[in-house]
Design goal:
Helix content of chain A: under 10%
Number of strands of chain A: 12
Oligomer: heterodimer
Order of helices and strands of chain A: HEEEEEEEEEEEHE
Largest sheet of chain A: 12 strands, antiparallel, barrel
Radius of gyration of chain A: 27 Å
CATH architecture of chain A: Beta Barrel
Distance between the termini of chain A: 72 Å
CATH class of the largest domain in chain B: Mainly Beta
Distance between the termini of chain B: 30 Å
Shape of chain B: globular
CATH superfamily of the largest domain in chain B: Cupredoxins -  blue copper proteins
CATH class of chain A: Mainly Beta
CATH topology of chain A: Porin
CATH topology of the largest domain in chain B: Immunoglobulin-like
Number of helices of chain A: 2
Radius of gyration of chain B: 24 Å
Helix content of chain B: 10-25%
Largest sheet of chain B: 6 strands, mixed
Strand content of chain A: over 45%
Chain lengths: ~250, ~600
């Protein structure tokens, strides 16, 4: 009897302090169980260009993302602003969803809006982006415009480390059109290439890295002919100064 | 009836008598001054690190934790054996401690030794929320000492931990400033010849892996007891005294190689459990591990406690001296180690990277490696699996030892807990004895030796370029809990398929590390698994409830190298459970 009372008493005393055990253990509903959602903003290029025929341009090439390992929303933005003409030679924005398809590559799909001086275009985008063997960062995209024209763009970048802060990056960008879009001056075939060499120094972590460089732009084939017909050049050399920025 | 009442009253009093220790901790925003920078962080009772909690084995402790933050918090008692509701992991042990709330932990202290505590919420721990626990044993200790200091290390980073995580996800090499440069390439050419240097670069480039990827997060200041190298924490001694140093690595990411030039260190405890004394010149402490060593300075001079990070990107420094203000010489950081193809032994990519392995091995060959051992390293690599601990040991005994000196001509020795030919094998700065896991023997076996009831293989997996980390290729967010049965003895087989070292920590139950010593295997709470190796540990499943099990590198755990372990069955499921938990103190 005594023991019984005692244990009953002990039980009564302890009951309120018992955690809810039940037969099921609680599920982990903490943030840790959720996929990590992160964001980032990067400008590979944010620069002033001065061409061999005295043209001045403000140029940027950046992207911002938000999402998880499995699915990211990405906004790519590129622009070339002619300072004297006060006009956008190029203004391109892409809204994309990106998901991994292999260890080192992501597939992306979305929409691209080109709204420079002159006619606008909207494209559907399908692409692959990632890291190729030997540390080449590559990006390939296929575009179909609202006019029904298809084109492709290939981008590659390689970084050579002189030191862990002084870095030479080489970038190549090539565009090929599978059909002509005369209105925006694009001919069938290889359209244009842009090659850049930029020597940067990581001044603040990797978030602010000023650089100096040279950029070579060239148009090919029909595209070059269209440009010439309109009195434009087909080849430009630029000296560039700018900074890589990320935060 | 009267008797029963008396007994009841007594029962009421009992918990009060048993609860000998009552402690209070507040969780606060604090400023952390490393000497290099000042950074806002999180601490306990107004400081980071928090106070040293001194418990006594056999007592019951009550710890009131008040959350003064504007976000939820928690405290995990790292290495303590306690009821799972007291373990302090939000979502697994309890709901966490809300802002403004005071949570009362109550549990019996059933062990002794050196441990630590830290927040298990978000990135509060790397931001400063950690402290030390010292538990005085009931009985006599098998070693003597006159003084006793906690030496708690951390790798304090100037960036907030959330930002570090974001940067790593955006650019996995964001913090790596030890990458191979053009200059290193020319140095390799002059050392090994053009073709070898080129092939080596191509082999690594083909895998998209970096030799220099030893420390993900560089740019930190190493702290000892909250003091940076310039602030120089000092422990005072009288010449001739035996000093017990309780080393605790509370870093987010950094492993440290610790030495005290001029003094031998006798390791007497690892992860809170006494080990048979082993005298060393230097030892490596993994993240979350503890080692207690005894030193005996005989002369009245200042000795530097020098803790270099494994990747040599930073260091912590403190001093033992007869009086405050004295300083010993501070050594230079040694050259950063580079991974070798042997460390890549577990990579998936190796299946199609046979060529790469050969190239790498060739390079090592030029690094003064014998043909025989090169073949071994090559085979080891291309088979896609490192030898398990058993055969590694065997190899060490029979062959590895013989040309041990040759394999790591540049690095030095071999260690059965590193891949053969690994670039990470530590070497003592003075050429003396460097502690290996294989030196550790339990002072007294904690459990009766028995055959494990089953084996569970856990592959440690990840993708450095995406900065994703996982177990068996599955991140925590997608993983089912790992189910264990109460009463079984599980043999865990860790296969590290990544290029990083992972300190694996199982909560609530001991990790008996298999060093091949049978019942004398050391009993730990955190087990480091080096790249390209397989390590075994056994666990007596004697703690019901659910527990966390994860890599203790903060950014690896947060990226998914984490599991919930559910122990099914056991006393808590029965009727007696209530009483037992209550006596131990459930949460209030």
């Amino acid at each position: 009897m005594r023991t019984l009372t005692l244990s009953a008493l002990a039980l009564a005393l302890t009951l309120p302090s018992l955690p809810v055990l039940g037969s099921d253990m609680p599920q982990d509903q903490s943030g840790r169980k959720d996929a990590l959602s992160l964001w980032g903003v990067q400008f590979e290029e944010l620069e002033y260009r001065y061409s061999d025929d005295d043209e001045e341009l403000g140029v940027w090439n950046g992207d911002a993302f938000y999402g998880t390992d499995e699915l990211k929303f990405r906004w790519l933005t590129k622009g070339e602003y002619a300072i004297e003409e006060e006009a956008y030679e190029k203004l391109e924005n892409q809204l994309l969803l990106q998901t991994p398809v292999s260890s080192f590559f992501d597939a992306k799909a979305g929409v691209r809006f080109d709204t420079p001086e002159g006619p606008d275009r909207t494209y559907g985008v399908l692409g692959l982006t990632g890291l190729a063997p030997h540390w080449f960062e590559v990006d390939a995209s296929l575009y179909v415009s609202d006019e029904g024209d298809t084109s492709a763009e290939f981008d590659a970048e390689y970084e050579l480390l002189f030191t862990n802060h002084l870095i030479l990056s080489a970038a190549l960008d090539a565009t090929v059109a599978f059909s002509e879009d005369r209105e925006i001056g694009v001919g069938k075939g290889l359209v244009s290439t842009e090659t850049g060499l930029r020597l940067s120094y990581d001044l603040v972590d990797r978030s602010f890295s000023p650089y100096l460089g040279v950029v070579h732009e060239r148009k090919y084939g029909d595209t070059a002919d269209f440009a010439e017909a309109e009195g434009g050049g087909t080849e430009d050399w630029f000296a560039v100064i700018g900074a890589r920025v990320s935060f | 009836m009267k008797n029963a009442l008396m007994a009841g009253a007594l029962a009421l009093l009992l918990p009060v008598i048993a609860a000998a220790g009552e402690y209070s901790l507040t969780v606060d925003r604090v400023m952390i001054d490393t000497g290099d920078f000042v950074k806002e962080g999180i601490g306990y009772n107004g400081a980071s690190p928090g106070p040293v909690l001194r418990f006594k084995e056999g007592e019951s402790v009550t710890i009131n934790v008040t959350n003064n933050l504007d976000e939820p918090t928690s405290i995990h008692w790292h290495g303590l054996i306690l009821p799972f509701e007291q373990d302090g992991v939000p979502g697994i042990s309890f709901e966490g401690i809300q802002p403004g709330e005071t949570f009362t932990y109550e549990f019996p202290i059933v062990q002794s030794g050196t441990y630590w505590f830290h927040s298990h919420s978000g990135f509060q721990e790397p931001n400063g929320a950690y402290g030390a626990i010292v538990i005085e044993p009931e009985g006599r200790e098998p070693f003597r000492y006159d003084r006793d200091y906690v030496v708690q290390l951390t790798d304090k980073h100037p960036h907030d931990a959330n930002r570090v995580m974001r940067n790593l996800k955006m650019m996995p090499d964001y913090y790596n400033r030890q990458q191979q440069t053009v200059g290193d390439f020319f140095a390799d050419i002059s050392k090994h010849g053009f073709m070898t240097a080129l092939q080596d670069r191509l082999a690594w480039g083909d895998m998209r892996m970096m030799k220099a990827d030893v420390e993900d997060v560089q740019g930190f200041t190493g702290l000892i007891n909250g003091k940076g190298p310039e602030q120089n924490w000092t422990g005072v001694f009288e010449p001739g005294e035996r000093i017990r140093l309780r080393f605790i690595n509370s870093s987010a990411m950094a492993y440290f190689d610790i030495r005290i030039p001029g003094l031998e260190m006798t390791v007497v405890q690892a992860d809170g459990n006494n080990v048979q004394p082993v005298t060393v010149d230097e030892f490596r402490i993994g993240v979350a591990e503890t080692y207690d060593v005894i030193v005996r300075p005989k002369t009245a001079e200042a000795y530097t406690i020098f803790a270099e990070s494994m990747g040599r990107s930073g260091y912590a420094r403190a001093t033992l001296a007869p009086e405050e203000g004295m300083q010993g010489p501070v050594p230079e950081l040694r050259e950063a180690p580079l991974l070798t193809m042997a460390d890549m032994g577990g990579m998936h990519g190796m299946a199609d990277g046979d060529m790469a392995t050969r190239d790498g091995a060739e390079d090592m060959d030029h690094g003064n490696m014998s043909q025989g051992s090169m073949e071994q390293a090559s085979m080891n690599g291309s088979s896609g699996m490192a030898a398990d601990a058993g055969t590694t040991m065997a190899r060490m005994d029979h062959s590895g030892m013989d040309h041990g000196a040759m394999i790591m001509a540049e690095g030095g020795a071999s260690d059965p807990f590193y891949a053969e030919g690994s670039g990470l094998v530590p070497v003592a700065a003075n050429g003396g004895k460097f502690l290996s896991y294989s030196d550790l023997r339990a002072q007294k076996p904690l459990y009766e030796e028995r055959e494990p009831t089953r084996e569970i293989e856990l592959r440690l997996t990840g993708n450095m370029e995406r900065y994703t980390w996982s177990i068996d290729g599955v991140k925590y967010e997608d993983a089912e809990p790992l189910k264990l049965q109460y009463g079984e003895r599980v043999r865990f087989k860790f296969v590290n398929e990544t290029m990083m070292t992972h300190p694996m920590h199982l909560h609530g139950m001991w990790s008996i590390l298999d060093v091949g010593a049978g019942e004398w295997n050391p009993v730990k709470h955190t087990v480091s698994v080096q790249p390209g190796t397989t390590v075994y540990m056994e666990t007596e499943v004697d703690a019901p409830g659910q527990w966390a099990f994860h890599c203790h590198l903060s950014y690896h755990a947060a990226s998914g190298m984490f599991r919930k372990v559910v122990v099914e069955g056991g006393p808590d499921q029965g009727n007696t459970a209530g009483v037992e938990v209550a006596n131990d103190g459930g949460d209030a």
